[in-house]
Write a structure and sequence with these properties.
Elements (H helix, E strand, L loop, with lengths): L4 H31 L13 H8 L5 H10 L6 H12 L5 E2 L18 E6 L2 E6 L3 H6 L4 H8 L4 H6 L16 H17 L22 H10 L2 H10 L3 E4 H8 L14 H12 L6 E3 L3 E4 L2 H52 L1
Antiparallel strand pairs: 1-2, 2-3, 4-6, 5-6
């Protein structure tokens, strides 16, 4: 119920994670259909980039203004920080405060004067401004770090490298907000270079007890996690996509024309394969470099056919091996019989 600076930066991280989730799922998937030349009707979704900009913008962002207040000479308090927010962010559609003269929430009694509210992607959150400035400063005075660096314990000395007299930095230490922002930026860069998989955890009830399912709570989480938009894109799009070469390599044994070797372009081979299997045309689309399959049941059918075909091939290999083994044994016995018969006739 009471949210301060700590919850603010946690929610900022959640917004950035939600943003990369949107970029890598909703946006990227629809752009892939366009790149591949697949007929597609764009599905609208909310992009929370505007909320991230409200927090992290280098000039008008909340973190930038908080750092400016912490570094500004003169009397600095949480109230002066809130006044600054009211001046810069008053007209922002995701920022709410009663202290601003042009605020739309002057008569909102649910919003105290010492608070501001942000309409996050997952809903509105109210923050108590008290303590923001002190928590953002998070300063460790230089003489304290030097004292800790002089400790005889190696671990304590390693924890305070800034206390080393040979490495004294006269610059003001970075604020907690700027450090957290840099860490989030590093995390986002790392995730963008990977192929992340997303697992959405949903609480069935507030008590975290078994066999209790709160439908309203679950629907609330599904709505604000963006799962509805993701499902809409997935249902309207294609459940599976794969480049032509690996697709042909995996399923080529299902068609006599492509097995064991296909001479020609991989796309032409996939077209022959799908025509031979008589898969309905509405179940797949040919892109510039990939085959797109709409429903999972079509993919399951291909996998079942492949599994059966592998069993048939295994049976064929086993049959040929047994025939070869029996014939080899028969020929050996026949040669032995001839040798025995010839020696018998010699002495008969």
């Amino acid at each position: 119920q009471d949210n301060s600076f700590e919850q603010f930066i946690i929610n900022y991280c959640n917004e950035k994670l939600q943003q990369i989730f949107i970029e890598l799922t909703l946006k990227e998937e629809q752009e892939e259909y366009i790149r591949e030349g697949i007929e597609w009707t764009h599905i609208e979704y909310f992009n929370n980039a505007i909320i991230c900009d409200l927090i992290e913008n280098n000039q008008t962002g909340i973190l930038a203004m908080l750092d400016e207040e912490c570094l500004r000479p003169g009397t600095v308090t949480d109230d002066t920080f809130l006044e600054k927010l009211n001046q810069v962010c008053a007209t922002h559609q995701h920022f709410e405060s009663r202290m601003s003269k042009c605020s739309r929430f002057l008569n909102d009694t649910s919003l105290p004067h010492s608070c501001f509210r942000i309409q996050h992607y997952a809903g509105k959150v109210m923050y108590q401004v008290e303590g923001f400035v002190d928590k953002n400063n998070d300063l460790l005075y230089r003489d304290l770090s030097q004292a800790m660096w002089k400790a005889s314990h190696s671990l304590i000395k390693a924890l305070f490298p800034e206390g080393n007299p040979a490495k004294i930095n006269l610059k003001r230490p970075p604020t907690a907000g700027s450090q957290f922002k840099a860490s989030v930026a590093t995390l986002m860069k790392n995730l963008q270079n990977k192929n992340p998989n997303y697992i959405r955890c949903i609480k069935p009830n507030e008590k975290k007890a078994a066999d209790i399912f709160n439908e309203a709570l679950v629907c609330h989480q599904i709505r604000y996690l963006g799962l509805l938009e993701n499902v809409r894109v997935r249902r309207a799009g294609y459940a599976f996509r794969q480049a032509y070469e690996p697709c042909l390599e995996r399923y080529k044994m299902l068609c006599k024309q492509t097995w064991p070797h296909w001479r020609g372009p991989a796309r032409a081979g996939v077209e022959v394969l799908f025509n031979e299997l008589r898969i309905p045309e509405e179940e797949f689309s040919f892109g510039r470099s990939k085959i797109f399959i709409r429903n999972p049941r079509t993919l399951f059918k291909l996998e079942d056919l492949r599994k059966q075909r592998l069993e048939d091939l295994a049976t064929l290999i086993e049959k040929i091996y047994r025939g070869w083994k029996c014939r080899t044994r028969f020929l050996l016995m026949k040669r032995c019989q001839i040798v025995i018969a010839s020696w018998y006739r010699r002495y008969a």
